[in-house]
Specification:
The complex is a heterodimer of chains A (296) and B (558). Chain A is mainly α and 296 residues long. Chain A has a single domain, classed as MetI-like (MetI-like fold, Orthogonal Bundle), CATH 1.10.3720. Chain A has 12 helices and no strands. In chain A, α5 runs parallel beside α8, α8 packs antiparallel against α10 and α11 packs across α12. Chain B is of the alpha/beta class and 558 residues long. In chain B, β7, α9 and β8 form a beta-alpha-beta unit. The longest helix of chain B is centred in the middle third of the chain and has 18 residues. The chains are: A mainly alpha (296), B alpha/beta (558). At the A-B interface, α1, α9 and α10 of A face α14, α16 and α18 of B.
């Protein structure tokens, strides 16, 4: 097949221009993800613009008398047990959920990249140290750890929750990063870069990382969804965000008890969560493909 | 089997292939189909060796895989292939399983990876016998396994049966593979590049074993290879393939003496030969050497095997402007020595001075400065270029980092370098995977010479390339060297390649240099017995010469 490709390319002397953006632009999947995530971002930034679109705009204006109502014209997504509008809550919850998911993943990714690259590239004592460190974190039960840390800290803002979650998800990413860097470290092109007398920073930044980051990015995008769900677990246990804070996790946690009688309380926040996770994962896939020159 | 074939050999072919065509569907039909083989026809008679020759991508391996039904689902196979009175194409999985290993068996390129590492070779041989000759009992299987190993001339077959694959050398492993393939007296043996992964001296042994076995059992062999030397040594008839099309089909002597097709001619001409004319030695003995290795020892600490001495007390000088070739078989330490000169391997004792910097003692800064004046070309061009860089970026890298070139000046210099290695400058925007092997190696050479190095280290730069490509890359290499006059340490296993390029030759064995002298002296009248063995084992693309050598070897042996 490569033979054929070589023949085809040798016909046109001018190489086609294929920037990352140029090939991204041609993918409908990319635009679908961007649209979905863009909309979610807009909702997160300015929920008041979207909350008023259907019926009841205020998530905290609740009427106990009209609790657990199925979707209707007044409440498009129905109401929860306290009689609050589910749609308005989903809209206002976007900010907390998205920021926890993205922030926790970003922080974990940065820690994982630094420590994983250090362990994988340097090897020796650095590798041993990072390996033991990840063992400690992975060996510690997530819930127990979160209980201890969150009780000790006391404050429950989305940033705190995100940081606590990041502490518990970086080890998996770091291990993956290490394995990936190790596989690339001894590749002939890295050896060639060393033989050229390039500095370590340049070798790591231009030769090792770009070729090693693919699998880690792919897993990191799936982590975003996991984090949003983990936040809801913490909330369910009374450790995460607390009412009057609003988040998808909080809504899901509350809806679980009455899922059989009024499923709409679970379905609509769940739907938003699924769209968010799918969009990030797909965007991650598309980006990874276009960043790899072979797949472009 | 031998008695039957003796009477019918002249007329009845064992394998008849007519109009074999293999087409691959790419990307579920979205990309154009790839025609791997188009209209291949041949007859294979008992006791005959038919060579299928071609360069990479010519479809030579696909043809044999098609016979055994081993192609992936994306392949469409048409035509006919009859084994005796059995049509092979279109057989069910179960019927094919009965044919494979029993009537047609196959040996592959890489023997050490074709054996299962967790079972003894005795177990694996008995396994084949259990499958194909269920009538044998335990003791008979054991005896037959030992007999098979004796047939492929392994010493102490009874003991060897208890060996694991990692305890065998590459040549021994390939002989075990041959023994397994012959376990049930197949009518046809398909050998796909059987000696390509082996060293020359070992290759010679394996080819001799194949030749003798074939004379004894009368098995017909389909030999798939890219190496004209192997063809000259073993084949009776030859089919030359090019991009899936059979180009020429002739008896071996006819083909080598008078090829009728242009492609066959270029292929034969491209094979490097020993006996290059004398050249003036460009080195000035009074100059200070650019590479000065004194009593170098390199040891590696293996996890289980203890200390391995890869380089053992080596002295070597490379003077400005000369090409010194380092020749040896795998494990001789030649690549380690090359890596040492780059500061990529640890020095246990001794000293290495490269372009004025003493490795191990010079400061990291001085070392980095020294590396600027050393260029490197590695064996596998596809793997030594950063896949995330365009080839232009790869060539520009040392210029920008060490030379401090930017913008237009950098662009101009890259274009210049591309021209020097005879690539269009417009290709700078391409990625390595879009180039062929030879083009990639040109890019590597451009990168290596970009800073006008004083010393170039080339580690098997052409051994991953097809012969015709190898010839052009070597020619280019010689041109560039003549223009830039850098000193070069050229590491290779191929004596003929060395002969066309080098000024002096160093022969390495077991970490030591056994012979080091002017090229024509070493290659025409070797003093060391190992050098002589290497020269004798190197295959020549000439059937008569190969027959003569084999007879000589036999005479010596008896």
């Amino acid at each position: 097949m490569s033979e054929v490709a070589a023949q085809v390319t040798s016909v046109d002397a001018e190489a086609p221009v294929r920037g990352v953006w140029r090939s991204l632009r041609r993918r409908p999947l990319f635009w679908a993800c961007v649209a979905a995530l863009g909309l979610l971002m807009a909702i997160a930034v300015a929920p008041q613009l979207f909350a008023g679109l259907f019926g009841q705009p205020d998530p905290r204006l609740c009427d106990l008398a009209s609790g657990s109502q199925p979707p209707s014209a007044a409440h498009v997504f129905g109401t929860d047990r306290q009689g609050c509008d589910v749609y308005a809550n989903v809209v206002y919850g976007t900010r907390a959920s998205l920021s926890v998911g993205l922030l926790a993943t970003a922080v974990a990714l940065v820690i994982a990249m630094v420590l994983g690259t250090l362990a994988g590239y340097r090897g020796g004592w650095a590798d041993a140290l990072v390996a033991r460190l990840t063992d400690v974190f992975l060996g510690f039960p997530f819930l127990l750890g979160a209980v201890v840390v969150l009780t000790a800290i006391g404050s429950r803002t989305p940033v705190v929750i995100a940081l606590v979650l990041a502490v518990f998800i970086w080890p998996t990413l770091a291990r993956l990063m290490r394995a990936s860097v190790r596989a690339v470290r001894d590749a002939p092109y890295v050896e060639a870069a060393r033989a050229m007398g390039l500095g370590t920073g340049r070798i790591v930044g231009r030769y090792v990382l770009p070729n090693a980051i693919g699998p880690v990015l792919a897993v990191a995008t799936t982590t975003v969804g996991g984090v949003i769900v983990a936040e809801s677990t913490l909330t369910f246990l009374g450790l995460g965000l607390r009412a009057p804070a609003i988040s998808w996790g909080l809504q899901l946690a509350n809806a679980q008890a009455t899922f059989q009688t009024s499923p709409h309380m679970l379905v609509f926040p769940g739907l938003f969560l699924v769209v968010t996770v799918l969009a990030t994962i797909t965007l991650g896939d598309v980006l990874r493909d276009t960043l790899d020159p072979k797949a472009r | 089997m031998t008695e039957q074939s003796a009477t019918a050999a002249d007329r009845e072919p064992v394998l008849t292939v007519r109009d074999l065509t293999v087409t691959f569907t790419v990307d579920e039909g979205r990309a154009p189909d790839v025609h791997a083989i188009t209209g291949l026809s041949f007859d294979l008679y008992p006791g005959e060796v038919l060579a299928v020759v071609g360069e990479s991508g010519s479809g030579k391996s696909v043809s044999s895989l098609a016979l055994l039904g081993l192609l992936p689902r994306t392949a469409t196979v048409t035509g006919s292939a009859r084994l005796g009175d059995l049509e092979l194409l279109g057989l069910s999985r179960k019927e094919l399983a009965d044919v494979r290993g029993r009537r047609i068996s196959m040996i592959f390129q890489d023997p050490s990876n074709s054996l299962d590492p967790v079972f003894t070779i005795g177990y694996q041989l008995r396994e084949v016998l259990r499958r194909h000759q269920p009538q044998l009992d335990r003791a008979q299987r054991q005896a037959r396994a030992a007999e098979l190993l004796a047939m492929v001339e392994l010493p102490d077959p009874e003991q060897r049966l208890r060996f694991y694959p990692h305890q065998l050398s590459g040549g021994q492993a390939q002989r075990v593979m041959i023994a397994m393939a012959l376990a049930s007296d197949p009518e046809v043996l398909v050998a796909d590049e059987p000696t390509t992964a082996l060293d020359v001296t070992v290759q010679q042994e394996v080819l001799d074993v194949l030749r003798r076995l074939q004379a004894r059992t009368g098995t017909a062999i389909v030999l798939i290879t890219h190496d004209m030397g192997v063809v000259a040594d073993l084949a009776d008839r030859v089919i030359v393939l090019r991009r899936g099309l059979p180009v020429e089909h002739a008896p071996v002597r006819e083909l080598f003496a008078a090829p009728t097709q242009e492609y066959t001619r270029t292929l034969l001409q491209a094979v490097p030969r020993l006996g290059a004319p004398a050249r003036p030695d460009p080195a000035d003995k009074r100059d200070r050497p650019v590479l000065d290795v004194v009593d170098l020892v390199v040891e590696y600490r293996g996890r289980r095997s203890g200390v391995v001495r890869a380089v053992d007390g080596v002295d070597l000088e490379v003077l400005p402007g000369e090409i010194v070739a380092l020749v040896g078989e795998s494990g001789s330490g030649k690549s380690t020595l090359g890596r040492c000169a780059l500061g990529l391997a640890p020095i246990t004792s001794g000293s290495v001075e490269v372009v004025g910097a003493l490795l191990g003692q010079a400061s990291p800064k001085a070392l980095r400065a020294a590396r600027r004046r050393i260029g490197v070309v590695f064996q596998n061009p596809a793997a030594t270029l950063n896949p995330r860089y365009t080839v232009g970026q790869s060539v520009a890298e040392p210029l920008a980092v060490h030379g401090g070139l930017r913008g237009e000046a950098l662009k101009r210099r890259v274009a210049e370098l591309f021209e020097q290695v005879e690539l269009p400058a417009a290709w700078a925007g391409r990625y390595p995977h879009e180039l062929s092997g030879g083009q990639q190696q040109r890019v590597s050479i451009a990168r290596a010479v970009s800073l006008d190095p004083q010393l170039l280290i080339a580690d098997e730069p052409t051994s991953a390339l097809d012969v015709s490509v190898q010839a052009t890359v070597l020619e280019l290499f010689a041109q560039v060297q003549a223009r830039l006059r850098f000193a070069c340490l050229f590491i290779s296993h191929d004596l003929a390649v060395v002969d066309t390029l080098a000024d002096r030759v160093a022969v390495m064995q077991h970490g030591r240099i056994v012979e080091l002298d002017e090229r024509s002296r070493v290659l025409s009248s070797p003093r060391d017995p190992y050098t002589r063995r290497l020269l004798d084992a190197a295959l020549v693309a000439d059937p008569d010469e190969q027959t003569r050598r084999r007879e000589e070897r036999l005479a010596r042996a008896s």
